[in-house]
């Protein structure tokens, strides 16, 4: 595998940093939206964004270390790349487990309602941004493979898919909060999000173990 040129490395680091900075306010906004609504999906989305922010920071830090320390051995570089991959996989798995737990615990007592418009707007903007970063990381990975960037591509594919589920669930709550089916749509949204995150996280973790064993 060829090393990244300075321009390629700078472009990727800039993309990682931009993604990190844009994601930083996410937990604050979704936290406020969670407090003003009774949506299970909104609570799960708040937890998910917080955990993912930690993974984004670690990925940016690892990539920066890899580019700043050219004298590192291949073993050390591979270890750092696996650290970034496992952090992304761990973020997905932890988010999925928490979201599934929230959905199950509130299944018998939850009634949809409250103000979800703000959360819906945030989720829709997140869908647009995460789709763009997914495409961006896909292009960068095809141009020149990097384990850290490839992990981000997988993360943002999951983030965009999750945001789509969140938008659908919150839209149902906003449009028909009193409809009998809305309660199950919101809970189902959380379960679908949790399932996809768990599947994506476990698949990525397995890929990292395979790299370690190779």
Please tell me about this protein's structure.
It is a single chain. With 214 residues, this protein is mainly alpha-helical. It has one domain: Cation efflux protein transmembrane domain (Alpha-lytic protease prodomain-like). 84% of the residues lie in helices and 0% in strands. It has helices at residues 6-23, 26-35, 40-68, 74-105, 117-143, 147-175, 180-213. Helix 3 (40-68) packs parallel to helix 7 and helix 6 runs antiparallel to helix 7 (180-213). The longest helix is centred in the C-terminal third of the chain and has 34 residues, at 180-213. The mean pLDDT is 80. One of its GO terms (cellular component) is membrane.
Total of DSSP H or I helical runs spanning 4+ residues? 7
Topology as a string of helices (H) and strands (E): HHHHHHH
Outline the biggest β-sheet. Answer: none
The chain-level structural class is: mainly alpha
Named CATH architecture = Up-down Bundle
Count every beta strand, where a strand is a DSSP E run of 2 or more residues: 0
């Amino acid at each position: 595998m060829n090393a990244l040129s300075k321009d390629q490395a700078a472009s990727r680091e800039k993309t990682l940093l931009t993604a990190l900075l844009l994601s930083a306010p996410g937990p604050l906004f979704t936290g406020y939206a969670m407090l003003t609504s009774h949506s299970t999906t909104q609570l799960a989305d708040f937890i998910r964004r917080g955990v993912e922010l930690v993974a984004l920071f670690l990925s940016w830090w690892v990539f920066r270390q890899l580019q700043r320390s050219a004298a590192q051995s291949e073993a050390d570089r591979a270890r750092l790349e696996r650290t970034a991959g496992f952090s992304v996989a761990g973020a997905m798995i932890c988010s999925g487990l928490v979201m599934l737990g929230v959905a199950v615990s509130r299944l018998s007592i939850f009634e949809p309602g409250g103000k979800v418009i703000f959360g819906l707007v945030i989720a829709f903007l997140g869908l647009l941004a995460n789709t763009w970063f997914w495409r961006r990381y896909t292009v960068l990975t095809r141009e020149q493979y990097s384990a850290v960037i490839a992990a981000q591509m997988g993360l943002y594919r999951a983030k965009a898919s999750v945001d789509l589920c969140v938008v659908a669930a919150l839209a149902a709550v906003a449009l028909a909060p009193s409809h009998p089916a809305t309660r199950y749509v919101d809970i189902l949204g959380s379960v679908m999000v949790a399932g996809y995150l768990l599947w994506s996280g476990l698949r990525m973790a397995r890929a990292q173990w395979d790299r370690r064993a190779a």
